[in-house]
Amino acid sequence: MSPYEFIEEILYKKLNTKYVIVGDNYRFGKMAKGDIKTLKKYEEDFAYKTKVVDFELDDGKIINSTDIRQMVRDGEIEKANKDLGHPFKMQGKVIKGAQRGRLLNFPTANLKPSFKYTTAKSGVYFTKVNIDRDFYYALTDIGTNPTFENKEIKIETYILNFSKNIYGKNISIEFLEYLRSDYKFNSADELIEQMEKDKETGRKLMEKYNNKA
């Protein structure tokens, strides 16, 4: 995708961008041919403004998006959030899944992402969910449900202290802490036992984050 196509198709049509905030070495588009001059050139055509900001440093190293994406892939979510300045987030619509969670007494919201996000490391995360501008703490599993031998990666969220039907709603999930890897259990009972432990961990973290507020 050329720099112009990126501006037109992604920034303008898909994201309806009003402000583009970049570092002074920002490059984009095919073969990284786009730069700040390119962004400024098309500001009036696509009704956005470009702002160039100074570099931020982490332990003396310039923070960049490539490193942050790798942190997300590696499960270093707290470090990624620190460098981002806010929690890594996914948005999308809640869809019906296999409903195994409900059968196990752990009903989950299955997310169909609205955008192709960086693939976060498989496993269980402590998260915060935004539903109709109300926030709830939750446990989110990213993975293939190896206990049930699925192949498709799914994003399933068990919302703590919540029982409403939210099928079809658009929600956002903020990833706060990585709890454990995703692995195969020998039985559904073993899985339930671990999920109870995860839930207890989630409740303790909920108290921790509520005390921060």
Automatic annotation (TrEMBL):
Pathways per UniProt: Cofactor biosynthesis; FAD biosynthesis; FAD from FMN: step 1/1; Cofactor biosynthesis; FMN biosynthesis; FMN from riboflavin (ATP route): step 1/1
Residues annotated as transmembrane: none
Signal peptide boundaries: none
GO biological process: FAD biosynthetic process; FMN biosynthetic process; riboflavin biosynthetic process
Recorded GO MF terms: ATP binding; FMN adenylyltransferase activity; riboflavin kinase activity
Domain Riboflavin kinase: 83-207
EC number: 2.7.1.26, 2.7.7.2
Xref: InterPro entries: FAD_synthase, Riboflavin_kinase, Riboflavin_kinase_bac, Riboflavin_kinase_bac/euk, Riboflavin_kinase_dom_sf, Rossmann-like_a/b/a_fold
Keywords: ATP-binding, FAD, Flavoprotein, FMN, Kinase, Multifunctional enzyme, Nucleotide-binding, Nucleotidyltransferase, Transferase
Pfam families xref list: FAD_syn, Flavokinase
Reactions catalysed according to its record: FMN + ATP + H(+) = FAD + diphosphate; riboflavin + ATP = FMN + ADP + H(+)
Recorded coiled-coil stretches: none
UniProt superkingdom: Bacteria
Biological role: Catalyzes the phosphorylation of riboflavin to FMN followed by the adenylation of FMN to FAD.
Name of this protein: Bifunctional riboflavin kinase/FMN adenylyltransferase
UniProt lineage: Bacteria, Bacillati, Bacillota, Tissierellia, Tissierellales
